[in-house]
Amino acid sequence: VSLQMMKHAWDNYKRYAWGLNELKPISKQGHSSNLFGNIQGATIVDALDTLYIMEMKEEFKEAKEWVEKNLDFNVNAEISVFEVNIRFVGGLLSAYYLSGEEVFRKKAVELGEKLLPAFNTPTGIPWALLNIKSGIGRNWPWASGGSSILAEFGTLHLEFVHLSHLSGNPVFAEKVMNIRKVLNRLDKPEGLYPNYLNPSSGQWGQHHVSIGGLGDSFYEYLLKAWLMSDKTDEDGKKMYYDAVQAIETHLIRKSSGGLTYIAEWKGGLLEHKMGHLTCFAGGMFALGADGAPSDKTGHHIELGAEIARTCHESYDRTRMKLGPEAFRFDGGVEAIATRQNEKYYILRPEVIETYMYMWRLTHDPKYREWGWEAVEALEKHCRVDGGYSGLRDVYNNHESHDDVQQSFFLSETLKYLYLLFSEDDLLPFEHWVFNTEAHPLPVLHKDDGSKEENQK
Ligand code: DMJ
């Protein structure tokens, strides 16, 4: 089914928005997000590996030809370093490792080089935004005191380690190792990492801690850096398990109805709200269970299972059976969005991602059942003639479509659905880690530096 869904999403993108970043499935035209500046083709690059994995050979070939002829980084564009890294660098790296086609390696390294000036700050903590022509960087104007964002500068590690590996140039890995060093020197309030860090002073901004937006994939990349290093990156491992310990003590709570959730922390006060983005953490806890101290393994799996259950409830308690952007545990509600501006669903993957990890790690059939519920809801409410659209209010009787087919729907949501219903030997966890945009990167085995070459 996810293959048919991919075909519908891809065919319509191709028909109405080919070469542009994303598709507007209702108005049947291109959609351009300022996150990618003038870099074009986000959907193509994000979808390459999904096409490959689903064996959509014709489509993969036309996507590759587009990359060869049209993907151009010599543009005057201010881009989000994080978004371009996870979608474009990550997408190109996976396409290379899966297919062995040199063009993807070349483009990934070329783009990586374009991103390097972002690190020209007094601390080496990169800027959020970069003009890839002038090399001038800056931070989001809304970010506390000119800060860089934890989930942005903390989500470069996997891709940059691979860029060094593939180019033979150590500079990429050095840049991300330096981020680790800066973080390790700092005092952490209650052992937690605030979302804001000033790249000039090297001091934290506002003490806002979140495992959802602004924080999320930083934690994910600590764990995955350790896994991707064939479990040699002890520093990444320690940082991950220490952080999880602090998260459990200060952020994880149980509602009176018995649902485990992860709250947000603002200078010591808890906001009892969980974002859709936070739901990825169920899969992360389960994936990290194996490396936890031996008496904690079962506990981390259990934590993953509880987060999966809570996130499933957030879907089940809506009319459309798709979860809201954020749900709350206060004012008499549990796992329900109470604010109008938190009721939307933009085809996000995190809940299905967690089902996929839980399925692989426990084989409890309920995760496939829950994934199937999501497929039915997507088909019923998000599928339109011109592709798939997000929804403005998942509690409403009638669909109000937002008219955007996000590129992560093709790279993540559909890929994780496909994996959820595939055998475990398709991209096995011993050999692959997924970047935060679901692009698989090979584990760099310590005994054989060229191992990934054998897996093509
Ligand atoms: C994706 O780009 C990535 O999963 C990122 O980590 C968070 N946001 C979107 C999906 O929701």
TrEMBL record:
The keyword Calcium appears for this protein: yes
A single Gene Ontology CC term: endoplasmic reticulum
Domain of life: Eukaryota
Cited InterPro entries: 6hp_glycosidase-like_sf (IPR012341), Glyco_hydro_47 (IPR001382), Glycosyl_Hydrolase_47 (IPR050749), Seven-hairpin_glycosidases (IPR036026)
Pathway where this protein functions: Protein modification; protein glycosylation
Compartments (UniProt record): Endomembrane system
Record: residues binding Ca(2+): T436
Keywords (A to Z) from UniProt: Calcium, Disulfide bond, Glycosidase, Hydrolase, Membrane, Metal-binding, Signal-anchor, Transmembrane
Cofactor(s) for this UniProt protein: Ca(2+)
Active-site annotation: E83, D216, E325, E350
EC assignment: 3.2.1.-
Gene3D superfamilies: 1.50.10.10
A biological process from GO: carbohydrate metabolic process
Covalent S-S links between cysteines: C279-C311
Principal subcellular localization: membrane
Main EC class the enzyme belongs to: hydrolase
Record membrane topology: Single-pass type II membrane protein
A molecular function GO annotation: calcium ion binding
Catalytic activity: N(4)-(alpha-D-Man-(1->2)-alpha-D-Man-(1->2)-alpha-D-Man-(1->3)-[alpha-D-Man-(1->2)-alpha-D-Man-(1->3)-[alpha-D-Man-(1->2)-alpha-D-Man-(1->6)]-alpha-D-Man-(1->6)]-beta-D-Man-(1->4)-beta-D-GlcNAc-(1->4)-beta-D-GlcNAc)-L-asparaginyl-[protein] (N-glucan mannose isomer 9A1,2,3B1,2,3) + 4 H2O = N(4)-(alpha-D-Man-(1->3)-[alpha-D-Man-(1->3)-[alpha-D-Man-(1->6)]-alpha-D-Man-(1->6)]-beta-D-Man-(1->4)-beta-D-GlcNAc-(1->4)-beta-D-GlcNAc)-L-asparaginyl-[protein] (N-glucan mannose isomer 5A1,2) + 4 beta-D-mannose; N(4)-(alpha-D-Man-(1->2)-alpha-D-Man-(1->2)-alpha-D-Man-(1->3)-[alpha-D-Man-(1->3)-[alpha-D-Man-(1->2)-alpha-D-Man-(1->6)]-alpha-D-Man-(1->6)]-beta-D-Man-(1->4)-beta-D-GlcNAc-(1->4)-beta-D-GlcNAc)-L-asparaginyl-[protein] (N-glucan mannose isomer 8A1,2,3B1,3) + 3 H2O = N(4)-(alpha-D-Man-(1->3)-[alpha-D-Man-(1->3)-[alpha-D-Man-(1->6)]-alpha-D-Man-(1->6)]-beta-D-Man-(1->4)-beta-D-GlcNAc-(1->4)-beta-D-GlcNAc)-L-asparaginyl-[protein] (N-glucan mannose isomer 5A1,2) + 3 beta-D-mannose
Family: Belongs to the glycosyl hydrolase 47 family.
Physiological role: Involved in the maturation of Asn-linked oligosaccharides. Progressively trim alpha-1,2-linked mannose residues from Man(9)GlcNAc(2) to produce Man(5)GlcNAc(2).
Protein name per the record: alpha-1,2-Mannosidase
UniProt lineage: Eukaryota, Metazoa, Chordata, Craniata, Vertebrata
Gene name tied to this protein: Man1a1
